[in-house]
Design a protein that fits this description.
176 residues, 8 strands, 5-stranded mixed sheet, 3-stranded antiparallel sheet, single chain
Length: 176
């Protein structure tokens, strides 16, 4: 990292993993990167704003998605640093990277409700992909973020799938 940028702070941010009813993940292609890279909705936290409020705001600002339910706040934070070619450019040069808090949400609406042509559009296109694919489509400097998220989400989805079965078994035992 260039000497003049190494002491820059990390930007406080949020990210949102949006799953549809088939557990496919929402990803979108950024306007400012014409290559075939996709990302999940994410953005900065405003002053005096908590992480969850920022996540809902960013999701709506970028995708028009409002009809979601929170599945889980993903434990911890994940940090990434910008590559040298973006340092001093992204975020008006104020930050060297981002420290993000991520949330897993279930989309309850229809695809027709999703609109990336917002007041300040950030995306060219969007799609639903398999969770396994998120590490195949992301820009390289965020790859470690998406690998970590993929593993954490797999565990959460497996628990969400097993939970009703376990409660059914507990209820059967309680009724005996």
């Amino acid at each position: 990292m260039k000497e003049r940028f190494k002491n820059l702070p990390l930007r406080s941010g949020v990210g949102i993993v949006v799953l549809n009813k088939n557990n496919k993940v929402f990803v979108a292609k950024r306007i400012d990167n014409p290559k075939n890279f996709w990302q999940m909705p994410q953005g900065g936290v405003d002053n005096e704003e908590n992480f969850l409020t920022a996540a809902y705001r960013e999701l709506e600002e970028e995708t028009s998605i409002k009809n979601v339910e929170l599945i889980k706040e993903i434990e911890g934070t994940i940090t990434y640093e910008l590559p040298e070619n973006l340092l001093g450019i992204i975020w008006k040069g104020k930050y060297k990277g981002q420290k993000q808090k991520w949330f897993l949400m279930r989309y309850l609406g229809t695809d027709e409700e999703i609109n990336i042509k917002t007041d300040k559009p950030e995306f060219l296109d969007w799609k639903w992909i398999d969770l396994e694919m998120i590490t195949e489509v992301v820009v390289d400097f965020k790859l470690h973020v998406y690998k970590e998220l993929k593993e954490k989400i797999k565990k959460i989805i497996n628990w969400e799938t097993l939970k009703p079965q376990l409660f059914d078994q507990l209820n059967i035992l309680a009724d005996r």
